[in-house]
Amino acid sequence: MFVILLISFLLIAALGLLLKKRFLSFTFLFLTLIWIFAVGCGFVPSLLVDQLQTHSPLQKPLWKDRNAIVVLGLGTVRWPDTNSFRSHAFGYSRLFEGARLYFDCKNNNKNCALVLTGGDPIKMGQAESQVAAAELKNLGVLQSDLLIESKSNNTFQNAQFTSEILNTKDFEQVLLVTSGTHMIRAQLYFSHFGISSFAAPADHIIPEYSLTPKALNFAVADLAWREIMGLARYWIYQKLGWNATSTKSRGL
Fold first, then answer.
1. What are the structural domains, with CATH classification, of the chain?
2. Which is it for strands 85-87 and 76-78: parallel, antiparallel or unpaired?
């Protein structure tokens, strides 16, 4: 979005030059420079992600007898010229945090299920939850402790379809694992379907302040803006009655 806005400024400036509208052209050239430095030097992305990454790491959970650790997927990749799948590089922090919590739960002699959610939205050939399950089994997670939801194509469906699984089980608490910038939206969606959860952020993004613009900061800004738009879309859809029917929280 931020790059598109930058390109739009440049196109308007160019149009102003073609139409000999110098004031219009110089105004948008000035806005382009301001935008490049405000975003690229880290100020705008820092402001945005600070509003999203409000949860601290869940270092030492208070485990109950029956726990569910829900891990949201973040895509898959297929090795060229093979049928070998791996989780997307951006999703490994989630898998690590899910595995860390699982083994901590086991070390405390509690029952714990890893609930993996994610389908195959871009038609890679295998659901991201199934790929993640294979990777976690290689780390020592028991097959009997894995629950897989493989129909969802977005975060809202993650919450919708995973809640159907959780509501058939007798879990005492749910821990939700996803990226730090994604946590507020994910918890909102899960609460919509009656699942109260403890936030277990898997990562924390910090923009890089610099005197010269950096592409990383544009990427962080776009990531944050996507989350903000997802939150706005939820509340707009909720007001219009377009969201799937919500469920009263079970207070897990």
1. 2-52+207-234 (no CATH), 66-205 (3.40.50.620)
2. antiparallel
95-152 pLDDT tens trace: 999 999 999 999 999 999 999 999 999 898 899 999 999 999 999 999 999 999 999 9
With beta carbons less than 8 A apart as the criterion, state whether 87 and 75 touch.
yes
Residue 251 above 80 pLDDT? no
Model pTM score: 0.92
